[in-house]
Amino acid sequence: MEILPSYDYELSVLIVVLNVRDLLRECLQSLLEECARLPQGVTAEVVVVDNGSGDGTQEMVRDEFSNLRVPVRLIRSEVNLGFASANNLAMEAAKGRYLVLLNSDAFFHAGALGRAFAHMEENPSVGAGGARLVSRDGALQPSGRRFHSIWRDALVLAGLAARFPRSRICGALDRTWADPNQPAEVDWVVGAFIILSREALAKTGLFDPAFFLYCEEVDLCRRIKAAGFRVFYWPDVVVTHIGGETTRKFRSLLFSKTEAQVVLWRMRSTLLYYRKHHGAQVWLARWLEESLYSLRRLRNLFSRSAARRERGREAAALVRLMRQAWRETSGGRISPPRPW
Question: At what angle do helices 112-122 and 21-36 cross, to 10 degrees?
Fold first, then answer.
């Protein structure tokens, strides 16, 4: 007879942070209000992993969120471990039957957490569930997506996905053609909110620590589906996600140091993901980005328009960043030393 593991809580909500003290305070206050709305008997804990903040985050959590009905535990890291490794720390420490990943810039609408719990209870074949993500103005953010492929990425990078969002072909990656009011089985869900089954994680393992930022939830959902579980998008689980409002559309077309670093993280993870799941197609992934950026550079660099010349210089910078990412990951074979 199989002995099922016992857990102290029904839900463990896991939050990874870095230098967002005031935003985290707001997130925790909202989260605790949402925990108070959970159905009777559904218990929860909160686990915060601080990735080496220097803004007083740790002191704020200790001073303002101790000795509460819903416990808030803090795990300290001296360095920035990234999203995957920091969440792994939280998952290993968590005492809940379901694990809920929540960004510090994400806020539940009333009853959303309870509905996510109910969906998981009603659907034991689901290994990961995602929410309807919206901006502060209510605008929909893509949250239930298809897996990356060369042609899907090409449609996004070429701008066709944004131009023809209702097309099943051009809008394939983000499923922008689909009715957002209908629940759907999807390939992967965005890490701003994910609820995970312990049973699924027991078969797949945790996040792959090779991914510092970007692609970690894509990789995990891919392994969850390979293990025989399903991944679902639920429109009645509504979460406001502030970070999704600024999806790297730079106001200045020339990168700041921080923006360039974020782009480099994304490129490294893209190469690691393609090498892991698509083998030699990683060469196509590199060629695709470098070719499109090079064409953009040629089209704009010698224009009479100052704005277009700036776009040309930006495109040249993107080519250099992709080449740097290729070198640093040895063509997607290795993850650069931490912290990135």
Answer: 60
